[in-house]
Amino acid sequence: MEMLWSGWGDPAKAAPLPEPVAGLLRDLLGVKPVSAPPADPSALTVPASRLAGPALAALTEAVGGPEQLRTDPESRIRHTRGKSTPDLLEIRAGRLDAAPDAVLLPADHDQVLAVLRACSRHRVAVVPFGGGTSVVGGLAPEADGCFVALDLRRLRRLTALDTVSRTATLQPGLRGPEAEALLAAQGFTLGHFPQSFEWATVGGFAAARSSGQASAGYGRFDEMVVGLTVATPEGTLDLGRAPRSAAGPDLRQLVLGSEGTLGVITSVTVRIHPLPESRVYEGWRFPSFDAGAAALRRLAQDGPLPTVLRLSDETETMVGLARPDAIGTADGGPAAGGCLAVTGFEGTAEETARRREQARAVLLDCGGEPLGEAPGEHWARGRYSAPYLRDALLNAGAFAETLETAAFWSAVPALRDAVQRALTETLTAAGTPPLVMCHISHVYPTGASLYFTVVSAQGEDPVAHWAPAKAAACDAIAAAGGTISHHHGVGTDHRTWYTQEVGPLGVAALRAVKAVLDPAGILNPGVLLPSR
Ligand SMILES: Cc1cc2nc3c(=O)[nH]c(=O)nc-3n(C[C@H](O)[C@H](O)[C@H](O)COP(=O)(O)OP(=O)(O)OC[C@H]3O[C@@H](n4cnc5c(N)ncnc54)[C@H](O)[C@@H]3O)c2cc1C
Fold this sequence. Notes:
Radius of gyration: 23 Å
Helix content: 25-40%
Oligomer: single chain
Number of strands: 18
Number of helices: 18
Bound molecules: flavin-adenine dinucleotide
């Protein structure tokens, strides 16, 4: 099945905004109706493909024939940009200047190598394409001329399973559910469940250092990776031969988060876990975000750590966004206010019960009020619905976008205030006062990630309208000591702040590595670092 070209996910699951919510948006935020995007991408005009002559012939040969090199408009539209709100607004408006000239579908590592060599020779830029769910402009390179999307969907096998070491080797084009199904058939799970789980791929998780909703229990994706194979224009890197190593700097860490700028990940070996016998999720109410955050910190620092641990602020709790599938229903959120926390426990029945009991004692001691399993189960059922809600908001004329960061615990309160203030002040000054919501969903002994959701009216030109608010939020993150991304990555959207974060020497070191692996500079130019 193909993703909805102008929005998110399975077109059959699209749902309109409940009328009470649409009414609230009109009354509270001044949201005005907008015209709907065309239902069919064939209504759009795509610039003519520039891939021709010897470059076209070489790339056709590299992927084994013309069926695996597509230049039809629909394939190119489906590989244009990613799924950030500006991406969706651009494509809905029919602005297709970022469409690739062709889509290539290699079958294996050797064909990927052949494509990269041919592209280097003919100076054709390459955008590795997994699920296409980037929200940071990671699929819209700064190419001067012709560029192609290298779609990895044909590389979707489980190629090795080591049940003794509990590792699995997965090809990069496997989507989250496909990888889980292959592992579940052998009694295992990876445990990586980002909100984009249904569409994002194993290669994309590694390339963008993804973090899933059960990161407290299973870790971030980069922590799961034990081995990588990478095709570069200059040859193959095979990395990772032991669980840990003192043999020099760990080159796997250079590839993780490289977002397709250094090579194409063609194989990922990950640690796996036995399928959990038992899964239980429950809700807790805290009187304030600070009280809830203190409880999460205590669990992160002193244990026991649940598998899922999240806390919504007062606004997110009130709006019901902690349980998006319940928005607009009578059961939209805890009626008595405060902040909703969700804890989840997965593992053997005995271990789950023990950790749950111990965590309960800590949460009670921190002032939490147990709400039972219903809010937790509601969250678990609706955990992949928020992106569908975004489509409904955009269709109703609202603007809705998310951004995220992370910081050490001591910096978290000021960081949250600074980002909220930057977004509120910028959008209010532009005549569209926003609703800004925040949650914590990834915790560590030393700090946590903050995730913000912004909803406002769209403004005349919504992409241009949002840009100053996004820049103000990024400036606020930098000034308050946060990182420019905890899990979405850098792409083209965050590179200004990323280059500040790593400094000029860091930028020069990265450029030197790229010059060795990709001397022609064909791989994702302008992603991570400006291309010039
Ligand atoms: C609604 C929504 C919810 C999301 N929720 C989360 C979340 O909970 N957690 C999270 O971490 N992220 C989340 N994301 C962001 C996104 O899903 C992740 O960054 C994900 O890892 C991208 O995977 P993908 O397969 O879609 O990669 P793509 O979007 O196709 O690519 C991402 C980047 O990696 C490069 N790339 C892709 N595959 C390869 C490869 N095999 N080798 C080298 N480079 C490659 C691309 O060129 C691009 O720069 C969300 C996005 C959306 C739209």
